[in-house]
Amino acid sequence: MDLFGRFLDIQKLVPILEKEFLPLLGASSSHSGIDIPAPEGTKFIAVADGEITFTQFLGAGGYTITLSFDNYKVTYCHCSPNYIVKVGDIVKQGQVIGYVGPQYVYGVKGNQYTDSSGKPTNGATTGTHLHLGIRINNMYQNPLDFF
Ligand SMILES: [Zn+2]
Q1: 1: in domain
Q2: First-to-final CA distance of the chain
Q3: How far does residue 24's CA lie from ligand 1's centre (Å)?
Q4: Are 73 and 134 within 8 A, CB to CB?
Q5: pLDDT at position 116, please?
Q6: Is residue 147 in some structural domain?
Q7: How far is the CA of 28 from the centre of ligand 1 (A)?
Q8: CA 32 to ligand 1 center in whole angstroms
Q9: Residue 48's domain spans which residues?
Q10: Given this model, what pLDDT does residue 28 score?
């Protein structure tokens, strides 16, 4: 599939990017996505036109949003629980679809993640950040290949 022009420049994904951003990306792109450090409340956008297909707390991902189109699934993890999109919403590339969430979340049934002091965290996270994962036919890709 020709992806050229399909995804936004990653520099636009989170509008707070500093010079240190790209090295951080490279350093953390070995798991099932990339981690973009950002303060709580930082807005993030749809990387492509698509449909919102998931907005729930998802284990290690914490509060999660999934954007789907064709055979792609783009997952945004460690989001704010104050969702501004819902399942079934059709969104446009560049549209703000959520906010980076808090490090700690309380009262989430089944959340097994805590920090070393036992405070419940927003999934497996040690600080506020956006985790971005991209799957094609449910196989995880390196997101950096798309930007
Ligand atoms: Zn991550």
Answers
A1: no
A2: 15
A3: 12
A4: yes
A5: 92
A6: no
A7: 7
A8: 7
A9: 10-139
A10: 46
Question: Is the residue at 102 inside a domain?
Answer: yes
| pLDDT value of residue 103 | 95
Domain membership flag for residue 84: yes
CATH code for the domain in which residue 74 is found: 2.70.70.10
- Give distance in angstroms: CA of 35 to centre of ligand 1: 5
Residue spans of the chain under pLDDT 50? 1-6, 8-9, 14-29
Distance 34 CA to ligand 1 centre (A): 5
Number of domains within the chain? 1
User: Measured between alpha carbons, how far is residue 123 from residues 48, 98, 104, 106 in Å?
Assistant: 25, 17, 9, 11
Ligand 1 centre from 79 Cα, in Å? 12
Instruction: Tell me how far the alpha carbon of residue 92 lies from the centroid of ligand 1, in angstroms.
Output: 24
- pTM as predicted: 0.83
Contacts of 24 (CB under 8 A, 6+ apart): 35, 36, 37
Closest by alpha carbon to 102, among 10, 48, 38, 56?
38
Cα(107) to centroid of ligand 1, in Å?
A: 23
d(CA 98, CA 2): 27
Q: How far is the CA of 30 from the centre of ligand 1 (A)?
A: 9
